Amino acid sequence: MTKHLNLLLFIIIFASCKMNTKEKEETVLDGIIQLSSPAKDSCAEPSLFTDSMGLVYLSWIEKKGKTNYFKFSILENDNPIAIGWSEPVIIDTGNNWFVNWADYPMLAADGANNLMAHFLAKSGDSKYAYDVKFLNSDNSGKSWSPAKTLHDDGKQAEHGFVSMVPYNNDFFVSWLDGRNTGMEESKEDHEGHHGQMSLRSAIVDKQGNKKEEWELDNRVCDCCQTSATVTTNGPVVVYRDRSDDEIRDMAIVRYVNGAWTAPQIIFPDQWKIAGCPVNGPRADAIGNHLAIAWFSMPDKNGQVNVIFSEDGGATFKKPIRIDEGNPIGRVDVVMLDEKTVVVSWMEGTLIKAVKVSADGTKQTSIQIASSSESRSSGFPQMTRSGKRLIFAWTDDKEKTVRVASLTL
After folding, report:
1. Helix, strand, coil share (%) of the chain residues, nearest 5
2. Contact 278, 330 (CB under 8 A)
3. pLDDT (tens digit, 9 = 90+) per residue, 240-278?
């Protein structure tokens, strides 16, 4: 009897050990570590940015009553197990802001104590009449300059979907500009535009002075995010274009030898849609190696693709489809090396990520978190610092921001 009991106990212990080992293996394979978040109650619209020194910045909007608080925090600990965030700092507050699930505030940092941040403030009675306001800090965000308006057209129209990156000793900024849409007179929504949304960019110095400004494309999709990055040749902006026939494919403009190239379609999806899908691209670069991820829906077939360039975006390889049959877009992309990227996207309600090589090979995708297809869940964010990826997203049920880490 004692032998049978000992054998049974051995079997139970052995099975338990095997189960625990498998659970540990699965955890290691997934590699996702849920982190505490500095953004607590009534928070949403997260944005992530990594500076040249590897510091990760998380910014977000916190709502208290009728007042919005634009805050940020910095990742303090390089140990992925004991990761922590600095005490949140308020960038600015306001009760006349335009707060939107897709057109969220963000900041950029150059790794030398200089930061630039932006938010959107209402400029008129029309639903989409708002300005891009920006602020600068020269002491790592301890104090900020008064907010200025980025554009100088003076129109009560839509201005937003900003991208910001450090460039040389300044900041490069791109945005969608509605000065020619006629919204000021019509007070209509996006479908009521009487004119064309344009894409503009500018160079802003560390003190907040605008040095140069350009119109890059005079007819673009009305409310898809822009994405900017810097190649060896210079800044590039990727965005959703809009043809006269309502084809809304991804386009790129490049700053080369002191001048901007004409808009170029990166791949002819031929997605014809009469309204804006609110689903912009993301781009990243190492030297002149460039990767772009985007969502498209040609023939009502939703798909997420990534495409590579070895010459700063002058030419591209064939796109690589990375979704699993039920994508809703909301993409992000980071380059790991000149030929490898990680793309994140939403597959239905799931936030997923996958490693992709320029030769077309893909690893098995990883589930980062379960979210929601609702607009209030926003756009999941991803950034890289060393051998770690950081993810952030809005938990629309709990009205808070979640953060996770993945070791590469």
Report:
1. 10, 50, 40
2. no
3. 999 999 999 999 999 999 999 999 999 999 999 999 999
CA dist., res. 375 & res. 221, Å (int) = 19
Contacts of 188 (CB under 8 A, 6+ apart): 126
Instruction: Supply 172's token pair.
Output: 């490069």
Token digits of residue 92? 């600015």
Q: Read off the tokens for 390.
A: 């950081």
Number of residues that this document lists for the chain: 408
In the structure encoding, which two tokens stand for residue 331, read together? 């993409």
Q: Which of 259, 270, 268, 267 is nearest to 235 (CA)?
A: 259
* Helices of type H across 179-305: 183-186
CA 4 to chain centre: 61
Tell the residue number behind the tokens 């095997």, with chain if given. Answer: 18
User: In angstroms, rounded to a whole number, what is the distance separating the alpha carbons of residues 398 and 392?
Assistant: 14
Q: What is the pLDDT of residues 57-80, one digit of tens each?
A: 999 999 999 999 999 999 976 554
Residues 4-39 have pLDDT tens digits of 444 343 333 333 333 333 323 222 325 899 999 999
Beta strands in 99-243 (DSSP E): 106-109, 115-122, 130-137, 148-149, 159-167, 170-177, 198-204, 210-217, 227-230, 235-240
Name the helix (H) or strand (E) containing 182: none
d(CA 362, CA 321): 10
Q: pLDDT tens for residues 211-250? A: 999 999 999 999 999 999 999 999 999 999 999 999 999 9
d(CA 322, CA 343): 8
pTM (two decimals)? 0.90
Say if residue 279 is exposed, middle or buried (CB neighbours under 10 Å; 0-12, 13-18, 19+).
buried
